[in-house]
Amino acid sequence: MGELIPLFPLGTPLFPGIVLPLQIFEPRYRRLMHDLLSHPEADDRRFFGVVAIRQGWEVERVAPAEALYDVGCTARVQAVRPQADGRFRIVTVGGERFRLLDVVVADDPPYLQAEVEWLAEEEAAEEAAGDADGLLTPGAAGATPLCDDDTDDLVAAVARGSLDVLSRGVRDLFSRYVAEVSGLGSGGSAGDEEPTMDAETAVLLDAVSDDPTALSYLVASAAQLTTEDRQALLAESATRRRLTLEARLLRRELTLLQTLGAVPVPLQQFLTPMTVN
Question: Which SUPFAM superfamilies is this protein grouped with (predicted)?
Answer without folding.
Answer: PUA domain-like
